[in-house]
Specification:
The protein has 138 residues and is of the alpha/beta class. It contains 7 helices and 5 strands; from the N terminus they run βααβααβααβαβ. The chain has a single domain, classed as 3-Layer(aba) Sandwich (Rossmann fold), CATH 3.40.50. Helix 7 links the parallel strand 4 and strand 5. The radius of gyration is 15 Å and the shape is globular.
């Protein structure tokens, strides 16, 4: 099994699709392609965006881009102990009065369970999660 270090958030993969020769690609090359992965949650968000665009325009171009980029990145399924981390994080954030979005909560829980660094442009939201390693590559 590949040793991953970074979990790419939706906005990072979207940036890769918009700018395939940009900063994200350079950073991934620097870190090594095998060091990055993403979540099934992120893949679901990307496919949702492509489906929504298709319904609006009839164009499947975005769907093809999503398929292509996700074929090159390992996609992690949700598995234990993500459920325990989810419960701990959600309980903590609700008590502090700083809840985050449900998909980000699952991504954060998965990253903590796998001891991965979340790479996101949404640093402020993920930064509320105690003990979560977060980097901002944009």
């Amino acid at each position: 099994m590949t040793e991953h270090k970074y979990l790419l958030d939706t906005n990072i993969i979207s940036e890769l699709m918009r700018n395939p020769r940009g900063k994200m690609t350079e950073k991934i090359a620097q870190e090594g392609e095998s060091s990055v992965c993403t979540s099934i949650i992120v893949a679901s968000e990307l496919y949702f965006g492509a489906a929504k665009k298709f319904q609006q325009t009839g164009s499947s171009r975005l769907l093809e881009q999503v398929k292509l980029i996700l074929s090159a990145i390992d996609i992690l399924p949700l598995e234990k102990p993500t459920d325990h981390h989810y419960a701990e994080i959600r309980s903590y954030l609700e008590k502090k009065g700083t809840p985050i979005g449900p998909n980000d909560l699952l991504i954060a829980a998965q990253a903590k369970a796998k001891q991965l660094i979340v790479v996101t442009a949404n640093y402020n939201e993920f930064n509320h999660v105690p003990g979560l390693m977060v980097e901002h590559w944009t």
